[in-house]
Amino acid sequence: MRIARILFQALLVVWSIPLYVFAAGAGDVVINEVGWMGTKANSADEWVELKNATNAEIDLAGWGLYEAGGSTLVIALTKKISANGYYLIERTDDTVIADVPADETGSFGGSGLNNSGEHVVLKDNAGNVVDNIDFSSGWPAGSASPDYASMEKDAQGWHTNDGTAQNGMDVKGNPIHGTPRAPNSGAGVSPSSSSQTTAQPSGASAASQNTIVADAGANIVAVAGDAVSFDASRSTGAGLLAFSWNFGDGNVAEGKTTMHRYQFPGKYVAVLTVSDGSHSSQDQIEATIYAQSVVISEFLPSSESGGQWLELYNTSDSFADLSGWSIGIGGSAAMFRVPEHTFIAGGGFLVFSGDTLKITFPLSGHVVLSYPTGQTAHEVTYENAKMCWSVARADDGNPRTQRAEQSSYDERFVWTQSPTPGGTNMFLSAQEPAGGISSSPVSAIEIKKPTVAPAPQFQDVVAPAEAKSEGSETTVASTAKEARDEKQAPVALAAHAFPWNTYLFILGIIGIFFVGLRYIKRTV
Fold first, then answer.
1. Three-state SS sequence of 301-327
2. DSSP states along 262-283
3. How high is the mean pLDDT in each 10-residue block of the chain (524 residues)?
4. Cα–Cα nearest to 30, from 130, 119, 120
């Protein structure tokens, strides 16, 4: 009986050890970069980057970023940070850094990061301070208008992003003067151009080696088949300059400005070369081209069983990559983001159930299919939904082909009592709805938008894009949070990743040692 009691006590001690042995300590995760000034697109688009200083993954669930010396919660953390990795926090939504996915988004506590300074504290799930930066008397680095350069951490302290390294675009396509999710720029190093110049002939002065600077402009997002404008007007150089473009798809062109159509979706690297005959400079941009053929085909907004669904259709003969696309209800913050590596076959259908979308269709509204940039790809408006009747596209033609010949086209959507999720639409019993159904013309994506990185992590519910000022959260935001909470596993310990076989082996050794020690003491 005594042996059993001793063994039970030993197990209690052993199982409590991981709480302390493997918990993240002070300095394991640091506040690495602060965009307290926001971005050129919006000064309220603030962001913070954390860095894992260890070689093990750390679970940040239950951690929090605080201001006012730790008394005011800025945002609660919910995910893991990889070994030696970065954790990007964006204020309100995931459009602050448009082409870099955030790990955490939400309204910042208080009124956001004050431009006059803040005392920011990072705490673990037990309330222990992991990192602490007290700049309540003023930020030591970073700059607001016109550069909006971030404050970065280095071995000596803090410095302003110096331009030697930058990453990302804001929501309006302006480059981020910072390095979210990337190594920080070098402190004290003068900015350098990404352009390269060729070697000068013998005797050329150092000054003449930098007379030509190629500038291909901003990264481009467009739709296959659309005419895209390339502009090198911001390039500089003396004398008569020649401009040549390699669009990355086997086609080339000459001229300071030119147009090009990418025939197939994909990501291309376009290279600009500017030359005066003796010297040259190059610059490159990315062109992200999306499929032009995917449309909303059918959806069921109301049914007796509550089984709503939405169907997409690929009007082309080629596969289309839908990674990062989104489906939402116009005027609502609820949105479903399509997971990475989701494809739809040429001439094929893709159906998302209501349980997957986590979106409730209203009796009247409009359904929106959007590209990863947020640009609308297709939109259908409907009124007075009928129980078990679906809204179905009656056109069999390719609207994009029609659009190539005219600025807009007319699509016909009708109500039908013969829903066909995953198959060709049927109209055994169809009628025009009393309130009417309409679809928006599919227009080309505006050029000179930020390049979109690989699709962000799958999210079934996105909190509303609220105004970036102090105020209460909306009901939809609460619903979004509840949906996320339901999916999360019980809050894990803020512990380093550790192989279970090794973990159990150590527990066994410690347990045997403890029991043996107790037994020896009693026998002696």
1. CCCCCCCCEEEEEECCCCCEECCCCEE
2. --S-EEEEEEEEEE-SS-EEEE
3. 56 47 73 94 91 92 91 91 94 90 86 86 92 92 90 91 91 92 69 35 37 84 84 87 93 92 88 88 87 87 82 87 88 83 91 89 88 83 87 62 38 83 77 52 33 32 36 36 36 38 68 71 65
4. 130
